[in-house]
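Appendix B. One record, verbatim.
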Amino acid sequence: MAVRVEVSDDVRYRLLKLVEQHPELTQREAAAQLGMSVGKANYCFRALMQKGWIKARNFKNSRHKVGYIYLLTPKGIEEKLKVTYRFLDRKVKEYEELGEELRILNEEVGELQRGENFEFRNSKFELKTKDPEAKPASALQIRNPKSEIRNPQ
């Protein structure tokens, strides 16, 4: 009974792309380019071969040693298209979420710079309160980077 192995979408995308662009790469070279161990690269290559997405062909390299050339199969080309779409979709969502987070941070920085809702006291920004004597329990304290700049001599 053959054991089925699974590879994440990210690794699948990167490996299928690498095989398509450099079919002559060894597993060691692929592992180095993908930032993984040779054992993990071997595991991933086997998984993709098991799924029928790539095939290995023997060839003699310039050092008269037998090597492999990895080729995408028609099923592999179809899978690369699917995984590329999912990868792109995920990256677009991450981009949009990051854009929203940056917009919110820019607004917060703008409020700090304009002094809205915050005031600078005792070398830190604190949330403004209606009662000047009250000490807010959840005062936002952000160090002022300008106060930490030292004049080199």
